[in-house]
Amino acid sequence: MNIGTLLTKSARTFPQNLAVACGSRRWTYARFNERVNGLANAFARLGIGRGVHVAILMQNLPEMLESMFACFKLGAAAVPINFRLHPNEFAFVIDHSESEVVVISSEFNAPISQIKDRLPRVRHVVTIAGAQERMLDYETLIRAEHAAFADVDVAPDDVAWVFYTSGTTAQPKGALLTHRNLLAMTMNFYSDICQGFGPDDVVLHAAPLSHGSGLYALPNVGKAAANVIPETISFDVDRILEAVERYRVTNMFAAPTMVKRMAECPALHRYDLRSLKILNYGGAPMLAEDLRIAIEELGPCLVQLYGQGESPMTITYMPHSDHVLNGTSQQMKRLSSVGFARTDVEVKILDDEGYQLPTGGIGQIVTRSDMVMKGYWRNPRATADALKDGWLHTGDVGYMDEDGYVFLLDRSKDLIISGGENIYPREIEEVLVRHTAVFEVAVIGVPHPEWGEAVKAVVVPNPGCEVSGDELIDFCKGRIASFKKPGSVDFVEELPKNNYGKIVKNLIRAPYWEDRQSKVI
């Protein structure tokens, strides 16, 4: 089935349900569908059809959802781009994806004009407002078209979404997500994450629609739930909490850094959050101590997700029932896990030779399901490395316990090898974050003349707290093996993060490795 038909069906059955709310704008499902149909007709007149790529570059706005669903209905592939990228970065994505149309919000009029000569395949630029020369006006295109559209028949393996990875270590790769992938993801959401989800639910899009929050717009639309888009560019904690109260939000997706900021917001308990049933968090590991505070402050609404753009949002999950504060030792240990495999997902742990490891064995996490991508766009080598015998090799290192719970240790590239010992930074981070003076921490390997690498902790202290490196190193004693303790600690005001809120460790490591001969560890 064409994934865009989710909207067509919801508009037919629940035409008066609220579909999208953003500031003063309120669209019913009937109106939302009519606007999407008009845009799909306009795209068709521009020569956009099945298999064509359409880049979408805008802030979190209703028009982003419209553009995505217009592509789906047409059988074209949407290429959503994070609006926080530098023009050089989104120029790469637009050109590499071979997008023929770019849909932008008005703040990107000037940047797109400046890089237009680097986008030879782009035939049309459509802007929401403030059209410039050689740009088409978004609303004019919709008003000129019919509000009816027959969704295009597609093959299950036709590409619906080209999901560009965050590119923290190299140029981003475009994961090809098919209609089959996205429909399976949607059904999986109903099965595991949100049983009973329906047309009375209200979903808040606090995270980028180009990423996880946009993916979860699909099950929202499929059940005719309301999609609330805050009028804020950055993650403003107070405005997000106020929106939960005002709209009686039942569901939202957030990165762990967002959950941490919500849980530690001084004004948290001024807001009525009783409507919030599901706070899905994922996209990066969440340290157990941060999670414990979140459970304590936010209540029984947390559900953890582990996935990748290559298998969107759907590898493992940790349900409400595993988010406990005073459980057994086994239950408390599980707070450090990423849960267990979703209902229709297989997960294994493999060694370096590709053999499955027994319970507790540390190796690469691999997964197989209908959610796994078709491959990477224009990157056969990366596709061959990632997809082997139908299994997606995630590049994440972890182990599985006797009950099937997966414990994510680190990305393979973040592994520290010191004196021949494998050291997983997350183990050390889990300890250090429990110190009252530590707000955030990243543990990295830095060059060492004898051991190859030494362990260094880079720490953001809590405001008003003073702590020494020796004190933090001493804090690790008795909590982890001696060889894992940091050899040194550096203090910084903030840790670099990418546009999805993930800590970018290669940027932290880089200064220490630039000149190995002159660095003093």
Q: Can you give a write-up of this model?
A:
This protein is α/β, with parallel strands linked by helices. The chain is about 30% helix and about 25% strand. It has 17 helices and 26 strands. It has a nine-stranded mixed sheet with strand order 2-1-11-10-12-13-14-15-16, sandwiched between helices. The chain is globular and about 70 Å long.
**What is the helix fraction of residues, given as a range?**
25-40%
- Beta-strand content: 25-35%
Low-confidence stretches: 517-521
Distance between the termini: 57 Å
Quote the average pLDDT: 93
The global form is globular
Counting DSSP E segments of at least 2 residues, the number of strands comes to 26
Radius of gyration: 23 Å
Q: State the secondary-structure class.
A: alpha/beta
Report the total helices: 17
Annotate the secondary structure layout.
Layout: H1 5-13, E1 18-22, E2 25-28, H2 29-45, E3 53-57, H3 62-74, E4 77-81, H4 87-96, E5 101-104, H5 109-115, E6 124-127, E7 136-137, H6 138-143, E8 159-164, E9 174-178, H7 179-193, E10 202-204, H8 212-215, H9 217-222, E11 226-228, H10 237-247, E12 251-254, H11 256-263, E13 278-281, H12 288-298, E14 302-308, E15 311-318, H13 329-334, E16 340-341, E17 346-350, E18 363-368, H14 380-386, E19 387-388, E20 391-400, E21 406-411, E22 416-418, E23 421-423, H15 425-432, E24 438-448, E25 452-461, H16 469-476, E26 488-491, H17 505-513
Parallel strand pairs: 1-11, 3-4, 3-5, 5-6, 6-7, 10-11, 10-12, 12-13, 13-14, 25-26
Antiparallel strand pairs: 1-2, 8-9, 14-15, 15-16, 17-18, 18-20, 19-20, 20-21, 22-23, 24-25
Helix pairs in contact: 1-2, 2-3, 11-12
